[in-house]
């Protein structure tokens, strides 16, 4: 369909794959039923995350704030094969408003790549190798008091020593974390030994989700909402990436209503984990921070596809566009707060009633 008209309330099947692929643009028609009646009838725990949700969730920025008020993110990753991944994650965090970003990298990786993102603080881990080991625990401990959110996994690789590091952090590091990429691979090898954690967000694509659940990616693709529920009940808050990503924590599930093929490029997921980290560090709860981040990332992809087409996007461009999407919804949030229309020139004009 080019357009699907649905009545009274949005329907889950129009937004979750495979339905969302066939529905086209979805229009909601008011047929006179009071909204409260639907809420009382269905007792739903699955919600559509859209622009209104994003405006409501966007953290406020006080006039006298400093960078420490924005929250701090640490990115743990990097290896000989994947040197750029932690930089893209750090860039995503900075573009989404993080006040301080630390890059905890193998020393040899930092020497070769650290200068490409001078806005982030480098924390090289001394090693003769191009991969992280449990030696990184000392580096994390040294700055633990300064970290609000630790992102584990971008470009870490899959060596035994690195897997041990990721598992040990899950078991012993008490603060808020995000697990992505090779961090998820490490969890999948040790799932039976892991307790569920409420303050750690997992960000798998369908292949990684299948590995965590012990099934194949096609099974996840055919049952995305069920897979999200199973992951959240077993591990904790989760973002199942893909067209119309799903976020859940076992109690509440959100379906993003945006997305674009422009996002299907190398490093896009690394940027997303950084955006989630910045919003989680700002004080939002895991589900809201992930919901807002996923929507910002998805709209950035849509903007890129409108401006430059769906092919040839770079992950760093997605990060750059996240900033502009945030600016647009902050403008809308401020307009709603003031109850009047704020002109592009900064002057206030009366609202329309």
UniProtKB/TrEMBL annotation:
<comment type="similarity">
    <text>In the N-terminal section; belongs to the NnrE/AIBP family.</text>
</comment>
<comment type="similarity">
    <text>In the C-terminal section; belongs to the NnrD/CARKD family.</text>
</comment>
<dbReference type="GO" id="GO:0005524">
    <property type="term" value="F:ATP binding"/>
</dbReference>
<keyword id="KW-0456">Lyase</keyword>
<comment type="function">
    <text>Bifunctional enzyme that catalyzes the epimerization of the S- and R-forms of NAD(P)HX and the dehydration of the S-form of NAD(P)HX at the expense of ADP, which is converted to AMP. This allows the repair of both epimers of NAD(P)HX, a damaged form of NAD(P)H that is a result of enzymatic or heat-dependent hydration.</text>
</comment>
<keyword id="KW-0520">NAD</keyword>
<feature type="domain" description="YjeF C-terminal">
    <location>
        <begin position="50"/>
        <end position="329"/>
    </location>
</feature>
<keyword id="KW-0547">Nucleotide-binding</keyword>
<dbReference type="InterPro" id="IPR029056">
    <property type="entry name" value="Ribokinase-like"/>
</dbReference>
<dbReference type="InterPro" id="IPR004443">
    <property type="entry name" value="YjeF_N_dom"/>
</dbReference>
<dbReference type="InterPro" id="IPR036652">
    <property type="entry name" value="YjeF_N_dom_sf"/>
</dbReference>
<protein>
    <recommendedName>
        <fullName>Bifunctional NAD(P)H-hydrate repair enzyme Nnr</fullName>
        <ecNumber>4.2.1.136</ecNumber>
    </recommendedName>
</protein>
<keyword id="KW-0067">ATP-binding</keyword>
<dbReference type="Pfam" id="PF01256">
    <property type="entry name" value="Carb_kinase"/>
</dbReference>
<feature type="domain" description="YjeF N-terminal">
    <location>
        <begin position="1"/>
        <end position="39"/>
    </location>
</feature>
<dbReference type="GO" id="GO:0052856">
    <property type="term" value="F:NAD(P)HX epimerase activity"/>
</dbReference>
<dbReference type="GO" id="GO:0110051">
    <property type="term" value="P:metabolite repair"/>
</dbReference>
<dbReference type="InterPro" id="IPR000631">
    <property type="entry name" value="CARKD"/>
</dbReference>
<dbReference type="GO" id="GO:0052855">
    <property type="term" value="F:ADP-dependent NAD(P)H-hydrate dehydratase activity"/>
</dbReference>
<keyword id="KW-0521">NADP</keyword>
């Amino acid at each position: 369909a080019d357009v699907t008209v649905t009545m009274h309330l949005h329907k889950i099947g129009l937004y979750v794959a495979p339905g969302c692929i066939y529905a086209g643009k979805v229009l909601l028609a008011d047929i006179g039923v009071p909204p409260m009646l639907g809420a009382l009838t269905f007792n739903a725990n699955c919600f559509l995350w859209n622009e209104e949700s994003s405006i409501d969730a966007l953290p406020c920025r006080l006039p006298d704030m400093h960078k420490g008020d924005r929250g701090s993110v640490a990115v743990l990753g990097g290896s000989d094969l994947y040197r750029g991944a932690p930089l893209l994650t750090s860039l995503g965090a900075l573009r989404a408003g993080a006040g301080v970003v630390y890059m905890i990298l193998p020393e040899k990786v930092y020497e070769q790549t650290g200068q490409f993102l001078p806005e982030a603080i480098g924390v090289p881990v001394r090693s003769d190798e191009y991969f992280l080991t449990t030696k990184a625990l000392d580096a994390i401990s040294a700055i633990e008091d300064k970290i609000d959110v630790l992102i584990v996994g971008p470009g870490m690789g899959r060596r035994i020593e690195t897997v041990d590091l990721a598992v040990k952090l899950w078991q012993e590091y008490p603060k808020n974390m995000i697990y992505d990429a090779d961090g998820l691979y490490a969890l999948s090898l040790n799932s039976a030994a892991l307790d569920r954690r409420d303050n750690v967000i997992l960000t798998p694509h369908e292949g990684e989700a299948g590995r965590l659940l012990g099934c194949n990616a096609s099974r996840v693709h055919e049952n995305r909402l069920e897979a999200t529920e199973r992951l959240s009940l077993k591990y904790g808050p989760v973002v199942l990436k893909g067209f119309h990503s799903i976020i859940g924590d076992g109690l509440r599930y959100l379906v993003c209503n945006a997305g674009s093929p422009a996002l299907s490029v190398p490093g896009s997921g690394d940027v997303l984990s950084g955006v989630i980290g910045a919003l989680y560090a700002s004080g939002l709860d895991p589900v809201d921070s992930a919901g807002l981040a996923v929507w910002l990332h998805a709209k950035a992809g849509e903007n890129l596809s409108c401006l430059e087409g769906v092919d040839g996007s770079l992950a760093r461009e997605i990060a750059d566009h996240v900033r502009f999407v945030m600016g647009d919804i902050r403008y809308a949030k401020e307009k709603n707060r003031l109850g009047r229309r704020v002109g592009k020139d900064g002057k206030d004009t009366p609202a329309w009633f």
